[in-house]
Design goal:
This protein has one domain: NAD(P)-binding Rossmann-like Domain (Rossmann fold). Helices cover 44% and strands 14% of the residues. It has 8 helices and 7 strands; from the N terminus they run αβαββαβαβαβαααβ. The protein has helices at residues 3-6, 22-33, 58-70, 93-119, 142-162, 183-188, 190-199, 208-219, and strands at residues 13-17, 37-42, 49-50, 75-78, 125-129, 168-174, 230-233. The protein has a 7-stranded parallel β-sheet with strand order 3-2-1-4-5-6-7, with helices on both faces. The termini are far apart. The structure holds nicotinamide-adenine-dinucleotide. The site of nicotinamide-adenine-dinucleotide has 29 residues, from helix 2. Belongs to the short-chain dehydrogenases/reductases (SDR) family.
């Protein structure tokens, strides 16, 4: 990394959920490499705080902890998420509610509870994690696609409300990325993996770092006039019909 980018987030305080694995883990590493002090949260893995983001009151507690530890909060990346393939008729209420609880409600609560701290920052940044599933749907992904459409709407509305406070809110929408979330499907169905490789104009699946690097950009001053947007990081998959 060049010296300018290495210091781009110097002195910033960041909170990343889902940081025990995949995209969240790569994001935490990238923000730290750019100089941020990162507080990492996940159900599992080598993180600062093991917590379930759907637990009542947890999001306010996490914000208090990061502020106490780092003296403030500048960057919020709610990356914890869940996904699985389930035929629509097998979507029981509990499964649908769990997907919405992790992918939407916890994101909403964390943003809401972080606003007072972010308002104190001169560089407030929120990057939510959507999906290409917020533009299209796919069989077996009714709950997941609904949740990612919701995250995009939440992002746009929050950007309108928080803009006057200098806080930007953007949604990073990954395509097919090789992480523990997608590994079971890609291993069980090699043709599924090959389909996504063919679909991407760049001819490959994404790596967590491909996404993390763009998140770091959106968290930086370089992205200071960008807000309320969804950005596809998908190797050009969305350019194909
Ligand atoms: P991942 O499974 O590797 O990481 C997700 C992390 O979230 C895991 O470490 C998991 O423990 C954590 N998590 C789940 N539920 C939690 C909870 N209740 N409390 C705390 N932590 C919890 O998956 P990933 O691929 O890195 O996914 C990260 C984000 O990117 C998700 O929001 C996902 O929907 C999104 N996404 C991924 C892809 C992809 O192809 N991998 C594509 C589009 C969007």
């Amino acid at each position: 990394m060049d010296a300018a980018r290495a210091g781009r987030l110097q002195g910033r305080s960041a909170l990343v959920t889902g940081a025990g694995s995949g995209i969240g883990r790569a994001t935490a590493a990238r923000l730290a490499a750019e100089g941020a002090r990162v507080y990492t949260v996940d159900l599992q893995g080598p993180v600062d705080r093991q917590a379930d983001v759907t637990a009542p009151g947890i999001n306010a507690a996490l914000v208090s902890e990061v502020v106490a530890r780092h003296g403030g909060l500048d960057i919020l990346v709610p990356c914890a998420g869940i996904s699985a393939f389930h035929p629509l008729e097998d979507h029981d209420d509990g499964y649908f509610e769990q997907v919405m609880a992790v992918n939407v409600t916890a994101v909403f609560r964390l943003i809401r509870d972080a606003v007072p701290a972010l308002r104190q920052s001169a560089h407030g940044r929120i990057v939510t994690i959507g999906s290409t599933m917020a533009r299209f749907g796919d069989a077996g992904l009714v709950a997941y696609a609904a949740s990612k459409h919701a995250v995009l709407g939440l992002t746009r509305a929050a950007a309108c409300e928080l803009g006057p406070h200098g806080i930007t809110v953007n949604c990073l929408q990954p395509g097919a990325i090789e992480t523990p979330m997608t590994a079971p499907a890609f291993t069980a169905m090699p043709e599924f993996k090959a389909y996504f490789e063919r679909k991407a104009a760049l001819g490959r699946l994404g790596q967590p770092e491909d996404v993390a690097d763009v998140i770091a950009f959106l968290c930086s001053d370089d992205a200071r006039f960008m807000t309320g947007q969804g950005f596809f990081v998908d190797g050009g998959a969305m350019t194909r019909q």
